[in-house]
Amino acid sequence: MSAAMDTESTYSGYSHYSGHSKKAHRQGRDRHKSPRSKDGSRSEKSVTIQTPPAEPLLGNDASRAEEGQDDNWGETTTAITGTSEHSISQEDIARISKDLEDSVGLDCKRYLGLTVAAVLGLLVFLTPIAFILLPQILWRDDLEPCGTVCEGLFISVAFKLLILLIGTWALFFRQPKADLPRVFVFRALLLVLIFLFVFSYWLFYGVRILDSKDTNYQGIVQYAVSLVDALLFIHYLAIVLLELRQLQPTFTVKVVRSTDGESRYYSLGHLSIQRAALVVLENYYRDFTVYNPALLTASKSRAAKHMAGLKVYNVDGPGNNASGQSRAMIAAAARRRDSSHNELYYEEADHERRVRKRRARLVVAVEEAFTHIKRLQAEEQQKAPGEMMDPREAAQAIFPSMARALQKYLRTTRQQQYHSMESILQHLAFCITNNMTPKAFLERYLNPGPTLQYDRDRWFSKQWTLVSEEAVTSGLQDGVVFVLKCLDFSLVVNVKKIPFIKLSEEFIDPKSHKFVLRLQSETSV
Asked: Cβ neighbours of residue 253 under 8 Å, at least 6 residues apart?
């Protein structure tokens, strides 16, 4: 318990010191950048937004200083923690505000659609009951006696309405998964069909039964039964259009992330473009690895150095003849360009070597920590029940022994912004509670997982925009391309139709597999 309190006090002082250090570092960095901003090379429309409230395990500044540090940095260097920073322009701020306004409009449209559907559903269920009760209320004395036939029809109407109610609840009253930009065409057509159907029944009922005060009550009840039967058939039609039609795979879509080129293939049925986009996004959060912009900084820095190596300056002035020197500098720049693949090769090899080394250190540290946990559990079994340590306290006790190795590995693989200290402690306590192995604990950190594995405040993709040349309510077709955009990247979706397959049969005669082996009796001596 004392170890856990020491750990908490250490991290509290740790974050306090990091705030002052990071402020001084930011001021010094702004002083160095201020001369560049005067010549107009840096855009003036920029603002820095500090997010999120939960502190990551290591700040983003540590990943920028990765290349100039040795493997023993932890013994002589103090790690600086802090909130992550994302710089976006004022145009992005305006776009975000516009998206918020659009989301308010989508909420109003969604609630309006739900209200219309609820009112129409209530009208549908009350209409057969009203058809039966209105003659009993208005001209009860003039009605002809019905007897047992009507009572059987009453039971039939009651059970059919119960079946229709359960089916409607299972098909329509479900939690919406997304707000689509346009209405669902088949759902809207079904609502219009139901409205016209009920309106025509009410019109016929008003003209032929209410005005004339029909006394044949058995015919009136059978009229209500026919309405319920027709509603059941419409519900069956809704199941076919909304659920069964899209089950058979018809198209294959290729989804490519624009930043790193990661791609996946999915099979879809007959869907509209907006519903296909919804299916793609659902699979994206499950199948694609989480988007990590820190992994793209290395390639950008290499490209910047490559472009800087191709610059040629005439130091003798425009009036002097320096063609020979210029040709020599161009040749040197070409040689440097030709050797860039060697720099890339050795840079990737050195990075892989550092990752393997720190991965091995992390695995050893976690195994030793879990071995210590097993020793503590054996000791706790001999103590009184009131003195036993809960999983949270055990996680806080062993976390300092693996914290440095985990920090170094996450910083090397540039995953530090996705794992806060609190999330690591919760995961460690979860593994201890369920008696999981060190390999099960490390599975989350050794390989980047899908987006759903991380907290929502770590996601870079929450608000999406669908861009398509075709109408989003139109169906998928061969060659259709649409784009799903978010703030930092986009998903490019290319649709291909599954080709028609012609399968033929070839008959093989079973007797063709038979053969005769003839052996000669005479053998050579």
From this structure: 265, 266, 267, 268, 276, 280, 493, 494, 495, 496
3-state SS record for 348-408: HHHHHHHHHHHHHHHHHHHHHHHHHHHHHHHHHCCCCHHHCCCHHHHHHHHHHHHHHHHHH
Contact yes or no for 391/373 (Cβ under 8 A): no
Cα angle: 323, vertex 327, 330; to 5 degrees: 135
Break the chain into its structural domains and give their ranges.
Answer: 102-244, 251-292+460-497
Q: Which residue has the higher pLDDT, 98 or 520?
A: 520
Measure the CA–CA gap between 231 and 240, rounded to whole angstroms.
Answer: 14
| Rounded-to-integer distance, Cα 369 and Cα 397, Å | 9
pLDDT class of 398 with cuts at 50, 70, 90: confident
Tokens of 99: 């998206």
Helix/strand/coil for 272: strand
Q: Which region holds residue 414: left if phi is over 0, alpha if psi is between -120 and 50, else beta?
A: left
Whole-model pTM?
0.67
- Measuring CA to CA, how many Å separate 326 from each of 37, 216, 305? 30, 108, 20
pLDDT greater than 60 at residue 491: yes
Neighbours of 368 (CB within 10 A): 15
pLDDT digit string, tens, across residues 285-304:
889 988 888 777 655 555 55
